[in-house]
Amino acid sequence: MDDRMRLAVLGVSGRMGRMLVRAVEEMPGVVLSGATERAGHDWIGQDLGEAMGGATLGLTVSDDPLEVFAVAGGVLDFTTPASSLAHAALAAQARSVHVIGTTGFTAEEVARLEPATRHACVIRAGNMSLGVNLLTDLTRQVAMALDAEYDIEVVEMHHRHKVDAPSGTALMLAEAAAEGRGVVLSDVAARGRDGLTGARPAGEIGMASLRGGDVAGEHDVIFATEGERLVLRHIATDRMIFSRGAVRAALWGRNRPPGHYSMRDVLGLDRGGLPDLPPPVAAYIDAYNARDVPRLMATLSEDVEFQNISGGVLTAEATDKAGFEALAIQGASMFASRRQTVLSAITVGRTTHLESGFEGVLAEGGETISLKGASAFDIIDGKITRVVDES
Prior knowledge:
The protein is an alpha/beta fold. It has helices at about 15-25, 50, 65-70, 80-95, 105-115, 130-145, 170-180, 185-190, 240-255, 265, 280-290, 295, 320-335, and strands spanning about 5-10, 30-35, 75, 95-100, 120-125, 150-160, 190, 205-210, 215-225, 230-235, 260, 300-310, 315-320, 335-350, 350-360, 370-380, 385-390.
């Protein structure tokens, strides 16, 4: 029996589409099941391999995404925001893993993806490479460690054909810097400067975009103060790193619960490098760190029980999902940012026991709270039925 994951490539004639086809053909555990292009495209009705200038593959390029979703376990989508939104609705219907590498989303468009994430595993990232996602994590940590005396600038360069600016990766890095500082990026962002701009305001996060030649992608995050500069840099020399990352993301998403995930989830960066947690627990922690209450609630059973114990004293309790949600909303609103990092994990029967560290920045006053604790999660039929937190 062939248990390889069936993957389809959307927008297959583009630069990334062709590379995604190559990645699926080269990587183990996956098989190409379909490919799409927009209606009226020259490739429609042709064999995919022949359209790409190679040997016959036995797959016909289609202009009907629904037909392709029906037979795919996952889809790889590097198209346009409008197309990705339409594809997300189809992924929700088909319960397919939807890997989105599309960039240029507005905040409103990202919000419009959320209904689909209640029914499908949606993995969206401005950059699918391991190196860039590690750079993002480093940017967050450095921004947290250095105060506003250090000016932050994100500089990116891409090939002349790129149509959006700043790049999705630059925005991801700027968001990470803002999270580290405990601020909202839209409040402090400066997207390019021109003319008599005046002195640079303290706390501003600048972004600059360069375009030219065939540059696959270069990103610098600069922390500059009087007397020194710290520069974090990533240089991509082969776009296949993005394609392989997308396939890896699809494999990670197979059998995961519905939700809106990122490459940080795929790489286990929010869980102290422990990506082998039971999927409901992994999804719970990812949603908790993102302060995403709807995604957190999607991991729970209707009759979930919760207890928080501090210093041996019961400080909070819920006996159903509605009570849990009220506590989750209250907890999320207390912090400008927070992170639970798993230090160790063991699963015995239906219960997973974690030891973890916690660090959060309070929304009021900006005080940082750090502590260590333990948690236990009971899981039945893929849903968390009981959570006990102790610190």
